[in-house]
């Protein structure tokens, strides 16, 4: 009952503070809308300068070697064939792409080179037979189409999808053309050019594109809305420290906190009540911002926010972020002695954590040193979880590490707040 009474008191204080309500709901909404509009063209036109691509060659023949050499000669693609000194497998490559560590993987199946050579030989034989040059050495039944595969991370830019897939198809066509002419010359050494027939080498091989998502879920392309709604929602949730710290320090200065402690005999109900109340407010902020992404953004000519398919995971991630934001706000409120100190430090620290965590710009475009620091920001944990859920349609187990980090951060902050507050009241 004491905890519920504290929550009711905080609700009354918030309702009577229109400025605080605007800060919690309207200002974040304006921020998301403005940032999404400003960055929309940037996300549409942004191009990466270099792409790391996993390369799994199960064929171990001329085809795989030719493709590897041609892809690396382009200059903007770096092929990764090993991880920690071990040759990559298809399953490991698919896992690495699904986790977002690499943006694409090219898979060369076993014996595909021999199959493609046989297909090319059959095509050459059929071509010569149409001119009456058949020599009786037919390979029999036509071989099925040879298939290679590129596995993509859903967040990869569309221009890189097209560039990599198109480049691979051109490389294959060139190799097939060489084999085709070699086959003709092996039978008729002086024939190097035959006119009147069109050879469609593109029908021999098919490059399929798949997104590294859980199950059969369809991947969602990255755009300004997909990045900014979860990013700035978390930013707004962490700014819960403004009303939380303001009310907490005000009660401590006017003696209300002391009276509450004397009535209850403990500081635990007051702090716990505040924690749960502002936790609910953070969750309401998230719902409000997600609603804006679903219904307001399309009205402004922007993309509609896609939530993926794992709604339970979204609730879990939102709860973890809300706990971390509330715990951090409570720690700031307890540690600093004046509102000016608490709000100044809190605002600056949140801006820094947001910048480092990828809220301002995606971690992908940061310098290497910032990318190394980014995983230490709680906002990066939350953004990573939401990206996995919204874009990659990840399972709950995939986001569990980030959820556990956020939960641990929240518990440490809450326990530290209780300890600091208890120590100061004793003094």
Structural summary, described in words:
The chain has 427 residues and is an alpha/beta fold. The protein has two domains: 2-44 and 221-426, no CATH class; 51-211, abc type-2 transporter like fold, CATH 3.40.1710. Helix content is 64%, strand content 8%. The protein has helices at 2-15, 18-45, 62-73, 90-98, 112-129, 158-187, 224-238, 241-254, 256-264, 268-299, 311-335, 339-357, 368-373, 378-390, 396-426; strands spanning 51-57, 77-80, 82-83, 86-87, 104-108, 146-152, 205-211. A five-stranded mixed sheet has the order 2-1-5-6-7, sandwiched between helices. A two-stranded antiparallel sheet has the order 3-4. Strand 3 and strand 4 form a beta hairpin. Helix 11 runs parallel beside helix 15 (396-426). It is elongated and about 105 Å long. The chain starts with a helix and ends with a helix. The mean pLDDT is 79.
